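Subject: sequence -> structure tokens, single chain

Hey, anyone have a minute? Need the predicted structure for the following. Not urgent.
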Amino acid sequence: MNNPVDEQLKNIHDKLQQLLKQYRLVQKENGQLKKELEKQKAASIKKTEQVQSLQQKLDAAQVGMSSWGEADKKLMEKRIDTYLKEIEKCLSLLNAE
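Reply:
Had a minute. Here:
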């Protein structure tokens, strides 16, 4: 007959092995998530730089628009608004992940 203490030790050993296996899986997943986070941070920084660049161009365009007619100004403002909305969508998608 098996000794009850031996059975308990075997059960504890089996559970410990299972916990170690789960721990390794969690560690691997954690490493992958950290890599993904770094990618997302880099993409976010790049998008932020693009927004700043576009904002500078917008500011320059607004200064130059003083000699434009009203129809040209409205058309340009509409195009710029469209670009800004697209950028905001991209940023919100990056922040949602």
